[in-house]
Design goal:
Cytochrome Bc1 Complex, Chain D, domain 2, two-stranded antiparallel ribbon, disordered N terminus, elongated, binds heme C
Length: 303
Amino acid sequence: MTQTSGIGKESSVVNTLSARRRHPLAAFVVLFIALGLIGATYATLGSAKAKASASTGATPEQLSEGQKLFLSSCSSCHGTQGQGIQGSGPSLVGVGGAAVDFQVGTGRMPAQQIGPQAPAKPRAFNQGEIDAMAAYVASLGAGPDIPDAGAYDSDPKDRDSVSNGGVLFRTNCAQCHNIKGAGGALTDGKYAPSLRDTTTKHIYEAMLTGPQNMPVFGDKVMSPQDKKDIIAYLVNSRSVAGSPGGLDLGSIGPVSEGLFVWTIVLGLLIVFTCWIGAHTTKASRARIAHYEATTGKDAANHE
Ligand code: HEC
Ligand code: HEC
């Protein structure tokens, strides 16, 4: 008896369900539930990602490896908590992973001695170790994260990008790095390095973190797109092998280069014309002398 009533109940449930399914609004209800599920999934994934980037996505193992490396290679100057040591190294609290990736990735850090400026040199750590130290330093205080490739991969063939980048470079960077990014000396034994070999990631990070005397070009001062355009301009100017107009005269500007052409090239032209003149008269005089000698006639009378 119980079994029969069970079956009866089930079939009545099925009946009501199938009746509902036939309801004209059923399709919309299903659509709503599906959309809701998708939305919920995205929201959970998104917040997980946001959480991950807030702590640079560091795993506990990465953090402990980073701390270990930091204690052995960096703490002698920057302190065991990255708090800085007066006269040896600045505090790294809040400089962010980007500063570590830039400083260690370009070989500036670990600095070998205290000088006016730590020079770039072959890097001492692999990228995995750098990421670990960056994660550890980022955990000391919030700062700019290592940017992902989408932020700094720019198109050096995009003309708009390159020309906008050129304008921005000339107004914001050229006073220190030279109009062609060749670098230049600053005061007190410091210098702005050449930008010809810097990777696009390190260019972006330099702008984000402002090493040494360089100002910080945060996103409020210079939009991410503008930074990308500057990178496009710099990479584009590298692909122009040497100087398209011929000899590179140090790119000192059109007026001085024009002056060079006037004085040197015009001077050479004058010398050449004099030579032609001297040479032709001498040559014809020699020919006349030869004529007179062989024929015994007076060339002037004969002609
Ligand atoms: C011999 C001392 C010394 C050692 C060792 C050293 N640093 Fe430095 N660090 C400095 C000095 C001095 C500066 C600031 C001057 C400069 O940037 O040239 C600096 C600057 C930095 C900066 C830039 C801070 C900012 O405000 O942007 C970072 C990041 C950094 N160091 C990370 C490291 C890491 C990571 C290590 C270990 C791999 C390390 N340093 C090892 C002396 C040192
Ligand atoms: C006030 C002078 C100054 C200005 C303006 C300036 N920089 Fe710098 N820049 C420096 C100095 C100094 C360094 C070297 C820092 C160091 O060695 O720690 C540097 C380093 C760099 C580096 C690292 C190069 C490498 O491979 O080692 C890049 C890239 C860079 N700057 C790009 C820029 C860009 C792009 C701009 C304009 C948006 C700019 N800089 C504006 C002074 C300046």
